[in-house]
Write a structure and sequence with these properties.
The complex is a heterodimer. Chain A is 22% helix and 21% strand. Chain A is an alpha+beta fold. Chain A has a single domain, classed as Sulfite Oxidase, Chain A, domain 2, CATH 3.90.420. In chain A, strands 3, 6, 7, 10, 11, 12, 14 and 15 form an eight-stranded mixed sheet that branches. A five-stranded mixed sheet of chain A has the order 5-4-13-8-9. In chain A, a hairpin with a 4-residue loop joins β6 and β7. The longest helix of chain A has 21 residues. Chain A is globular. The two termini of chain A are 26 Å apart. Chain B is mainly alpha-helical. Chain B has one domain. Chain B contains nine helices and no strands. The longest helix of chain B is centred in the last third of the chain and has 37 residues. In chain B, 24% of the residues are buried. At the A-B interface, α3 of A face α1, α2 and α4 of B.
Amino acid sequence: MKFTKGIRQKAPWELKDSDVTPEEVFNDRRRIIKAMGLGALGASIPGSVQAGIFDLFGDKKTQSQFITSPLTYTSNLNFTGNGATTPFDKITTHNNFYEFGTSKQDPSNNAQGFSVDPWTLVIEGEVERPLTLDLDDLNQLIALEERTYRLRCVEAWSMVVPWVGFPLASLLKKAGVKSHATHVAFETLFDPEQMPGQKSRLMGGGIHYPYVEGLTINEAMNDLSFLAVGLYGKTLPPQNGAPIRLVVPWKYGFKSIKSIVRIRVMDKQPPTSWNQLASHEYGFYANVNPNVDHPRWSQATERRIGEGGLFSAKRINTQMFNGYGEQVANLYQGLDLKSNF
Amino acid sequence: MRLTSKHLFWLKVIIHLVALWPIGSLVISVMAGDAGGDPVQYIIHYTGIGALNTLVILLMISPLARRLKQGVLIQTRRLIGLYVFAYASLHILAFISLDLLFEWSLLFQEILKRPYILVGAVAYLILIALSITSFKVIRKKMGRRWQQLHNWVYLVAMLVPIHFYWSVKSEVIEPSIYILIVVGLLSLRLSVGKKISQTISRLRLKLSSQ
């Protein structure tokens, strides 16, 4: 938001008060959509018959054995996605999570047996009060809110995703960041027994595990940086990074590390997985930038995965900082984004 | 059993069935929602691998025909070669229609800017030339130049796995396996070729000494 002579001006992405849907209408719509969903389910072929048809072709049908549970949260009306949200089944079956395999369907096929209870997330390093959080803490320590963010993958596809979680800054403030801290490092669970991609190089795509990522302290303290524990109102499915993941909406998707077990506040820049693998292709910042191409993929446009079938996708121009420039451009003043990509 | 030209008809029927089966199963899995949340990449990858697999099979025919002494097999090469072209066409059609959504300017930019797309495009242009000249009439008209042109399939065989290797983010093991297979099949030709020419020169020596 901008302040001009004491009058609060709304940023372009903010909604007018008149645009806000009244709660009853909002709930009614949800109820209708829910009812439609159940109706469609009832009309479809019984599960066992379906399985029989697909077994013939040797394809594994995604089985959602993993149990997610409803969360209590408020909706952040600054981030509503304007109704263009990517459907749940597409968000949960099109994933890059190499710990469960490198093809897009591998995570939803291979992660359903993943166990997130017990879970331990450690916040340590240059902090006043190191924290050790268990699964209940993740969902209850800080009041949850829903934010619908755009997600832009470096492979030039994009989605609009309703996450439930809390700002990363809220958690870091609880731990008390020391004044000389400059960066925050993140680490994914390392458990080859549960994550077949960590066991086999063929499945894991040659990444050095555990997966690590990092932000500058200013990026981490920016209000947009979000720790998600839920998706579409329920706890996260494993393919989307259960039980807790980072969401940094102005950076390419690989920055948003999944299934975090460690957050370490540091006084130097931490290593990051894709940068270690190919530093000329993946920089530390990974800001969405239509003017800086990946050496092998153009970043000028993207294919938005929305509602509808195979032929309904749209190609749209990619926005600087994925459209969040108003809130984050100030983080990079004086930095050459062509060399610091 | 020695396969004869009588068996050729049924051999070709089997080849059609085997080659069309994956396309049918792709259509079914996409319609059934089994190709993931975004079937676009799935389809592009699937048809690309299809073209590469068919190419590998194509390259295996002549060594196999020699080893098994089944000359008739040679006559299936045109058919299988055309299936390589068909899968490659589906691959490129899917890329242009489903991924680029017919943004032609983007396509030409990408071909010029991205070495791996350029490599794929060159391979496809050669495949087009080989397919167009695959008719018997043209083959007869071209005479010796036909074989010279169709030897370019070996270049395609090297370019396609490179295109695959270059296109992936980090999962290089699968394309590496294909590179090894193709190098193996091509070197087999080199050694077979050498052996043949050695035998011929030995025969010539024998004949001339007699």
